[in-house]
Amino acid sequence: MIVDHIEINNRMSVLELINQMGRSGVLGAGRMYRATKLLAEILDDDETAVFLSVAGPLVPGGLRKVIRDMIENGMVDVVVTSGANITHDLLEAFGGRHHYGMTGDDETLCQQGMGRIGDLYTKSEDFEVFEKEITKILSKTVEKDNYLTIREFLTEIGMKLSDEDSITQTAARKGVPLYSPGLIDSMLGLQLWMFTQDNELHLDASGDMSELSDLVYSSKKVATIILGGGLPKHYVLASNLLRGGVDAAIQVTMDRSETGSLGGAPLEEAKSWAKAKAGSNLVTVIGDATIIFPLMLAGALEMNKD
Fold first, then answer.
1. Which residue ranges form the domains of the chain, and what is each CATH number?
2. pLDDT of 123-143, one tens digit each?
3. Is 130:99 a contact under the CB 8 Å cutoff?
4. Which tens digits make up the pLDDT trace of 90-105?
5. Coil, strand, or helix at residue 198?
6. Does an H or E element contain 295, and which?
7. What distance, in Å, lies between the first and last C-alpha atoms of the chain?
């Protein structure tokens, strides 16, 4: 294969740029093109159930509406994410925009009531609002039921939100299951624990697997979109072990493989565990998902429009 050099002009669309990457066909540019093409195929196939895995600070990092719109527009059938992303989604749902881009010394920021995630920040006063509002929702929830799976719990929260830009609200309204197996490891989990010191509320983590296995078994084909690594990545892949693995997967990660971490593991490794089928279409793009995925999704949607 001859490597054709990328050509840039001042009238290019996102898809035209990605197609130019495909002309090169190698390294990150080639992976970006192949992942975008695979994403377009996945989104255009009504027989494929799409599992979206979201790890890392992608909600506070600017992808909240991207993920929300994918749910709203029927692009995904299952969402698995961290408790932290749900917390940050609720943080905005409870009072507007509460993530900031700024700079400052960390010790000074702490004194000012600011918490830092990379180069984005949150205010402790916004978490005070979060604590107040989530306690109201928890109180209403236990009046209805005090024994729920984590997915049922998140649906109950989502149904009580008015913010239509919320991932949690949109998933509940659209009937898209939202799973968070590591929910307790977040500010939402901390508030849940504090609430249960005086109230009877039990979450069944293993109970979600019954519903999830039914979704897996009932799907003719399954594809996963994996943004970041960690527990959400393993949850979507391991759940598909029940059917011999996923049929296709796209991974966007910056983790490395040398340490044996799951986040950095190449998708091909999943074949050895039957988490990805033999012959499955797998593409990994190395990079920051806040850069890569919006471009990839825009390109895929443009591909399917033509």
1. 14-305 (3.40.910.10)
2. 666 777 888 999 999 999 888
3. no
4. 998 988 557 666 666 6
5. coil
6. helix 289-305
7. 27
